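Justification of computing resources. Each target in the renewal requires a structure prediction run like the one illustrated here; the chain below, 152 residues long, is used simply to show the kind of job we budget for.
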Amino acid sequence: MKARVSVIAAAVLLSLSLSVKAHAGDLPDWLTGEWRQDRGDRWDEEVWTLPRGGMMIGVGRAGRGDSLRSWEVMRIVRAADGTLTFHGAPEGGPATVFPLVGQGVREISFANPDHDYPQRIRYWREGRLLMAETSKMDGSAAQSWTYSPAGE
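Resulting structure tokens:
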């Protein structure tokens, strides 16, 4: 009986690891599109290109009413070894690199514990919505966004 349970457990673990490996290094094409969140007179937008040439390019901006409060240029890059990194350059400054720390079918997380804030960046899909969260490594100081496809 114990041997049978061990074989079943090993098979489950192997299938999980194969599932994760099947997605490792895949650019998150489910992120592609134009996304918008409105909260009263405050708004946030992100636009992500289709994956091409081992890269996705994103731009984001946030504002209140007709005023722009912040903007950022972002990239998700696949290196020659297949690893992914997120590069964020707020308001034209130098880019900060966040290596991939987790990836699923419709979820991706990057982290850089040496950066002041954010240290962790996570995107995932819930149906037609794009969810995003930034935080410290321990999950504190979290900020979150719920984006709808623009034009809806």
